[in-house]
Amino acid sequence: MLAPLILAASRSDKMRAFVSAAPGTKQVVDRFIAGESVDQVVPIIEDAAAKGLEVTLDVVGEDITTVEQSQAARDAYLQLVERLKELGLGTKAEMSIKLSMFGQALEGGHELALANVRPVVIAAAAIGTTVTLDAEDHTTLDSMFAIHEELRKDFPQTGCVIQAYLFRTEDDARRLAAAGSRVRIVKGAYKEPAEVAFQDKAEIDKAYVRVMRILMEGAGYPMIGSHDPRLVSIAQELARQAGRKLDEYEFQMLYGIRSDEQLRLAAEGHRMRVYTAYGTDWYGYFMRRLAEKPANLLFFARSVLTKG
């Protein structure tokens, strides 16, 4: 399978240099990355709001190595909050944060990440929005969940992400599916060993459905992160069985993928949130998008060949 190779390449400095220099890269990156700065992404937020869509904003760049970089990441999100406040878009745009970008992997990283993310959560709450903590590889999750629990003491609307391909996720879902919680379920986009995660696509899909059922039958607010038409349809049926109204759960899809489906779901009255990434350090995010779907890799390869 190509996905593990692509995910391994996402950690390679040599591959980063090669992909960044490839003639067709920008065309493909622009499909997934909304821009490099806050000002470039603002029109996209406004356009989404006009179409009945909501967004969650991710400032890309989790591969940091210094405390100063983690503080710069914090400041980038604070700048984003200030722009959302100026534009009155707080209720239409939330934020997604990878704690690795806030220093989680550095020495004393758990405390550092918590110290960096707290002011962003405070600022977000002040303008009527919130933050969702993205899930990363399995070694980071205990820290992420502990930070999530700590933040929810003062800001119970703080969300988190769980990944269907991990064996632990059904237990995590049961624990998190409580009143007031916001939980995004995704398949998972990191290279994980067979000891902790399902490797077969069919098994991952089955696990995804099991976790969706737990979230839909729980007391929290499920956020269904999937582009798979079958899983979207199953989510609608599980919501119906659980007696959920259309505003008691939402769908989430990536910027640049299945835009027509996003509009269709919104037109049907579903809450539809578009995961919108921006920033200059796009490589890790971009490689995970290639790994998730062979068609994305084919699109990239074709662009490189035709531009070379």
Automatic annotation (TrEMBL):
Stretches of the chain forming a coiled coil according to its record: none
The reaction(s) this protein catalyses: L-proline + a quinone = (S)-1-pyrroline-5-carboxylate + a quinol + H(+)
Top-level taxon in the UniProt lineage: Bacteria
Keyword Oxidoreductase: yes
Keywords attached to this entry: FAD, Flavoprotein, Nucleotide-binding, Oxidoreductase, Proline metabolism
EC class of the enzyme, as a word: oxidoreductase
One Pfam family, short name: Pro_dh
Pathway membership: Amino-acid degradation; L-proline degradation into L-glutamate; L-glutamate from L-proline: step 1/2
Keyword Flavoprotein: yes
Domain Proline dehydrogenase, residue spans: 45-299
Cofactor(s) essential for the protein: FAD
EC code: 1.5.5.2
Protein name per its UniProtKB record: proline dehydrogenase
